[in-house]
Each structure stands twice: as structure tokens, then as C-alpha cells.
Amino acid sequence: MERSGRRRSFSRPHRSVEMRDRQVEREVMTEFLGSVRAGDGRAVVVRGEPGVGKSSLLDYLVESASGCRLARAAGVESEMELAYAGLHQLLASMVHRLDGLPGPQRDALQTAFGLSDGPAPDRFLVGLATLSLLADVAEDHPLVCVVDDEQWLDRASAQVLGFVARRLVAEPVGVVFATRAAIDDLAGLPEVVMEGLEDADARDLLEASLSGPLDAQVADRLIADAAGNPLALLELPRGLTPAELAGGFALPNAMPLPSRIEASFRRRLDELPEETQRLLLVAAAEPIGDPVLVWQAAERLGLPADAAAPAAEAGLLEVGAHVWFRHPLVRSAAYRSTSVRSRQEAHRALADVTDPVTDPDRRAWHLAHAATGPDEGVAAELERSAERARARGGIAAAAAFLDRAVRLTSDPIQRAERALAAAEAGFQAGAFDAALGLLSVAEAGRLDDFERARVELLRGHIAFAAGRFTDAPGLLLAAAGHLENYDLQLARETYLHAWAAAVGAGHLAEDGILLSICRAVRTLPPDSDTGDPQPLVVLLEGLAALIADGRAASTPALLLAARMFASGDRSVDEMLRWGWLAAAVSIAVWDDDGRLAIAEQTVRTVRESGALAQLPVILTVLGTAALLSGDFARAAAAIAEGDTIATATGSQVAPHVALRLLALQGKENEASAMIAATIEQAGEQSITAANAYWAAALLHNGCGRYAEAAAAAQQATSNTFEPWISTWALPDLIEAAVRAGDVDLAQGAFDRLTETTQPSGTDWALGIEARAQALLSDGAVADKLYQQSIERLSHTQLRPELARTRLVYGEWLRRAGRRTDARDQLRLAHELFEVIGMAAFAERAWRELAATGERVGRRGEAVSGELTAQESLIARLARDGLSNPEIGARLFLSARTVKYHLAKVYTKLGITSRAQLDQVLPGPGQ
To answer: Region Disordered: which residues (predicted)?
Structure first.
């Protein structure tokens, strides 16, 4: 896998002619180098068809990079299945500096490269480690990384390098990718699109490359066919005789240009001696350009030492410290132009000379290509390679090894088992179509009932992951039913996935499917005879009872499940898999103690385990818990961190917390725009839209627009099968409906609310219930209920709810003519709203206070409002004592970039050090 040294360029006829038309592209590269030397991290993608001049532009960049350290890598088509092969190629000369990385990052990269054993590393942790390593190396000299033929990088390397490219900010590191077509992993990065040469330059290059006469009409045709492609201009004339060039007529060729260029190379290869052609085949089949391996394999095939000379003289191959083809299309032509048997012989020779101890995976891959038919020994080697790839975090590589093992397996039972394993790996790698194809292969073989249930399970997971929400719940329900007889734990997990899929699908799910899932759960046998049920079992039974039997029957189990997860006794695996759901359930059952504890514990577990891709979801739950406490700074930090990770990982997370934060802050323009965009994008009936409608209800209630608030809250609470937002928005519906004069609407909402609050019995639940009932009551009854609500909520951490109760109580007291009592409640409400940052509600309280005759001032915005979301988050983490590397690890940034952002924070806040952050930033809970 390792490659060191610089790639040498083949001399090309009149290269100055080829590059003369590239002034703009060269200026971009010059500007790129200037930015890197100045300490500004940059990444750029050079895109264009084969032969258009990408490599020449990269050579120009390398030649111009004086004073910079260079690192190069190139994708190789035959190496796409070897996990992290391209990344190791790029970082090979830097691995001796791994010890300088933070422990988790060092371990992740060492495991990915097979340098040490350990659990499979999260690919984003590998990405962060790569970013840290590049930044560390660049401290000595600016670093320029050049990645050619990116389209052929292995999937793991492509993801990591795309991740790194997006995180470069204040590091003297530049990364240039050359690729033939747009690549998803590089989407959004600046591009240089290489077009063909202008006709005049194309004609000059064509004429300069030929020694004989060239007929004008033939030249016109070649220029038109080449469409300005420099390599085509050099290669297409080689297919014409001197007579045709001088005045004959070349026939049209229907092949696409890359195929025609490859055909030209193939004709040139055919002119070489047979021994040279066989050597070129060996070199093409050996992916890392190791001349020792190539010559050892050639010796096994009986090829002489001078077999490379004719290829070098023809300008097709260079053998030195490494073996280099003039162009990837030469490699392709050398490989494809030979017979299957010749390719098998070449791979067999390479397998024989590849060390089975130091490089077992590449040896297995050669053996697979050398196989002439089913071969159980090779298939078993590929299985072992798949396990090693999985251990390094190379799921896509594991899937590729297993897929090849399936092809080499003749025993129908083993073939089906391997196809199922390959399908599972393909699903984990995101290759859904390939996984479904392998499932068909598995089903055609001899599977036992348990394996067939696993097939159903995988089909359900694929349906859900692929967005086929109509199909997923039913498939998972069927799989769970069949799994009951073989693996009860897996069956329960599958039922839980089915439940979540059905709730998430909402109106898209099959009618009655959610109830069918819950009824099936009710028929499961007891958990155990020990009397100590598993949290997963309690959680599943509670969720099933929620739908099948209602809140009263389900709340005890759901409260117990929440408290079991909040206890701190759960395993890492339990917290990773179900902590987010337990945290959400704790809020659904009004559990003030559990909501924040579970969210914090799950976030901590995710970070410590390195499963960083899961963070955005649990940060949404943490942000929700922070909003309930009125800790808007912490909620904003959760939003910023979640957005940072989602952007880095390419995941999508609905803006649940951001919507409600803007609404509670009273930022009307921003909130309204985001609410409208979210509803339009998500669809009226989705959970995401329901959350947006709830945010709208909060915004309108704060602004005193009660009819609009009631309409939005009705939308938010319309899906009664969804147990979260449909409940959480009920208090807003009751308040808005009462203020709008629709008592019947408010009473119906109150009846629904008590179905959830009464079974819970917590101070949170009963405090909210008392306030809602007070809004519907009069006289002494209302007075007593408002006081009960304040008493209950004062025992919780729910400052916004306490402030809202004081507000509506104060409003009621003023209308009852008790102005002095009203002032006391409204003053406390106003002060608390101001401290929390609920501007619209604070304004509403201020207006009510003014109506009582009291004069009160308004507070200005906190100085931290000048910071961007990311700057605010970094400042908060620095204030809390995290070092720059620790902040970088949290936010997928290098320590140098964190330092860069902190310098901007200090300037904006008018301070000079992190020790002063405590003086200018709001503390926790403010």
C-alpha cells in the first residue's frame, strides 16, 4: 500500500503548446499556492475528461510549489476495494508523526492503516485524525497534497479526503483533486473545469507532434474529432497512415473519445514485442507501482529483464523507483487488450510474489482475479480479508471482498450464507441496490428459516434507509415475527425499529401498521425469570402500550425505561443504540429529572466511543432539553455543533431545535422564513412539519397573535399517533384558543393533555396541567390553579414554563382588577423572560406591566450576539476549559483553526484572552 517519492512526468511533444491555452487555469493554481503559503487552507477540484490536460496542470502546480512540502496519491482502478489504500498512499511519508496526535485520533488512523488492532474506527474520526496530521506536518512548511484520478480512490479514502477538504480554514494546507467527473464526496468544493484547447492551439499542437505533411482537410477532421483534447490530438493521428495524413480521408469513428484514445494506445501496444506486452499486463495488474513486485512476477512468467525497454522507448511506460504509465488509459489498454487467461496468469504470478503476512488482502485480491472457476480456498481468504477490512472501518471494502467470495463459491449453502453477509455489508456501506441483488442470490440458495428472517430484516432496513417509508414498517414487522423463534433479543430490536419506522412514516405508513406492530409486541414472552427486565424490553413494551392502550397504561413503563437509562448503568451499546429514544421518551412523559441526564449521558457516550456520525440526532434531543430549561446558549451550541457535524458527515438533520429557538427568542423574520421553508420542504403531514407548526404557535403566542397561534398549534397536534409534538404543543393550543375565544377548542385540547399529565404525576406534568386548567377557569378556582402551577414548576428546572405561568397569571390578575398582585407576577415574568432571552414574551409582559401603570426598562442584547454561531460555540467551549485540540476534536476542526476563530472572538468581544471569556459570556443557564 505504501508509496513514497515524487511522480515523474513523461516528456510530451511541445508541452508549451499544450499549456499555452491554460493561462486561466494556471492563474488559479498560482492563487491557490499563494493562499496556502499565507496560511489559508484551500481545496480545489480539477475536473475534465481523460487526456484534457489535468495531469499537465498538476505538474505545473508541483513545479511551482517551491518552499512547500508535497504529498501525492493517485487512485488506481484495481485498488478501489482496498480500504484506505489511497489515504495511506498520501500519508505514507507522515505516519511517523502519528504519535503527536490525540490518543483517539492516533488509534483511529493506526487501526485504519492496519498498524494496530482495535475496534473499527468511525470514518469521521479517521478524517479528523487526517486533518490533525496534515495540520501538524504543515507547521514546518506549507503542505500541498495532490490527488490524481480521484474517481478511482477507494470509497473510505474518498470520504475522508472529501471531509478534510471541507474543514481546511487556517492551516497552510492545500489539497488538489483531479477527477474525470463530478464526485459526490467533493460536491460543493471550488472547481476548475478543464475544457478542450482552442482551435488555433489545437492545430499548433497537432502540427508540432507530426514530422510529415498533414492535409488541411484531415487536420480539420482530427481537430473536430478531438474537440480540443490534447491527448487525443497526439494519439488519434497514430491510427492513420502517412498517405491518409497527407491527403487521404479518415473514416468517421462512432466510439466515444476516451475509447478512441484507448484504442490508439492499444494499437501502439500491439506493435510491441509479445514479451513487452506481457510485462505491461503485469504492471497494469499491479496497483501500487512497485517495480520489485513487477519484476519478481515477470521472472515467474519467464520474461527477460530488458522486456520493458521497447515500452519505455515508445513513451508508454517508465520503470524507475516506481512503475508509471504515461496515462491511465495506457494501463487500461494494457490490461483489457489481453485475453482472460493472460490476465489470470498475471494475477497468479503477482499473488505468488505478494507477501501473505504483510499484504494478505492484496494477495487475496490477486488470487480472486487469478481463479479460473469456483475456489473455496480463495473464497475463504476473501472472507478473512473482509473481516480485516471491517475491523479497519472499511465497510465498502468488506462488501467487495465478500461479493467476490460469493462468485467463487460453488457450495449452495455457503454461497447463500456469503451472499447474505455480503448484502449486510453492502447495506452498511450504503450500496442498497447491490445489497438487494445479493439478497436475491441468497434467497435462491439454501437458507434456513433464521437466515430467511435475516433477509426480511435487511430488506426492511434497506427500505427505510432508502426512503421507502410505505414498505419499511411492514417488512420489519414480518422480519420481527419470524425472528421470535430464533433470537428474541433481535426480534425485540426489530420491533422497536418497526415502531420507529411507522411513527416516522406518519401518513405514508400503511393503514393500521403501527397498531399491528404494537399488538405483536404484546404477544412476546416475558423478558426473563430474574425479575430484572432489560431497559430495551421496558421501553418497547411502553411504546407498544402507548399506541395500543393509551397514555395511562403506557406511562409507568415509559417512566421506568427513562429512569433506567438515566441511571448511568447502561452499557455503551445500549446508549449508542437507544439513548436518543430514551431521552425523547423522558420528555414525552414529563420526566424533568431524566430528560437532560439521558441526553448528556448519550452525547458523552457517543463522543467517547468515536461514533461521531450519530451525534447530530442526539444533539437535537440535548438541544430540546436545553430549551426546556431556558438555556438558550446551550441550545444554540447544540445546534451549531450538530450543524457542523452534519455538514462534515453529509447527513441531514431536521432543524427542530433551531426553529423553536428562533420562535422562543421572538426573532420573527428569521423564524417565519425558516418555518415556511421547512414546511414546504418536508410536506404538510410530516413530523418535521408538525415541529415547524409548533414553532409557529410559540412565535405567535409570544407576539400575542392568538388566532394564528391556535391555527398553527392545531396543525402541530393533528397527528395523534405521534407521541411527541402532538402532546408538547397542546399547552400552546390551549393558551391560544382561550385568548382567541374558542373555549371548545381549548377544552378538547385540555382533555387530551390530561391523558398524558395525569398518568405521569410529575411536577412538570401537573404544573402544566394546572396552568391549562386555570386558563379555562374563573374566580377563586383559577387563582388557586395558577398558584399551584407556579408551586409545581418552581420545583423543576423549567424556567420558560414558570415564566409563562407567571405571565398568564399576571394577565388574569390585571383583568380581574388586582393591579398590585398583577405587577408582582408580571415583573417576575418579565425579568425571567429577559434573562432567558425570550424577547417576544418579554415584550408581551412589558406591555401588560405598562397597562398596570408600572414603568420598566428594556434590557439590551448580550454582547455574545455579535458572534457567529460557530464562534459562540467555540467561545463557550473555551470558557468551559477545553483546550484548542479538544475543541477541534469536538467540532471537526484543527487546533490551528480553533485558534484562528478564538482570535476573531477576542476582537469582537474586546478582550485579549480566554481567561476573560467568563466575564463577557453568559454562564450556564443564562
So the answer is: 1-21
**Rounded distance, CA 295 to CA 322, Å?**
11
Cβ atoms within 10 Å, residue 742: 18
Distance CA 663, CA 703 (A): 10
Angle between helices 472-483 and 513-522 (to 10 degrees): 20
Task: Assess whether pLDDT exceeds 90 at residue 351.
Answer: yes
Burial group, residue 44, by CB count within 10 angstroms (0-12, 13-18, 19+): buried
* Cβ proximity of 225 and 218 under 8 Å: no
- Measured in degrees and rounded to the nearest 5, phi and psi for residue 839 equal -65, -45
For residues 397 and 158, give the distance between their C-alpha atoms in angstroms, rounded to a whole number.
13
CA Rg value for the chain: 33
Assess contact for 770 and 792: CB atoms under 8 A.
Answer: yes
Nine cell digits for residue 286: 499491479
Question: In this predicted model, what pLDDT tens digit does every residue of 626-655 receive, in sequence order?
Answer: 999 998 888 988 888 888 777 665 666 788
Express as a percent the part of the chain with pLDDT over 70: 86
8-state DSSP, 277: H
In this structure, the strands spanning 173-179 and 143-148 are: parallel
Which pLDDT belongs to residue 694? 95
173-179: strand order across its sheet: 69-74, 143-148, 173-179, 42-47, 191-193
- Closest by alpha carbon to 414, among 424, 426, 405? 405
CA distance 264 to 921: 68
> Three-state DSSP class for 53?
coil
CA angle 109, 115, 116 (to 5 degrees): 90
The model's pTM is 0.71
Between CA 734 and CA 737, with CA 736 as vertex, the angle to 5 degrees is 65
Asked whether 609 and 572 are in contact (CB, 8 A), the reply is: yes
In angstroms, the CA 774 to CA 868 distance is 41
- Which secondary structure element, helix H or strand E, spans residue 460, and what is its range? helix 449-465
pLDDT in tens, 553-577: 889 999 898 888 888 778 888 887 8
Residue among 174, 229, 181 nearest 53 (CA): 229
What CA–CA distances, in Å, run from 590 to 551, 563, 690, 829?
A: 12, 12, 19, 22
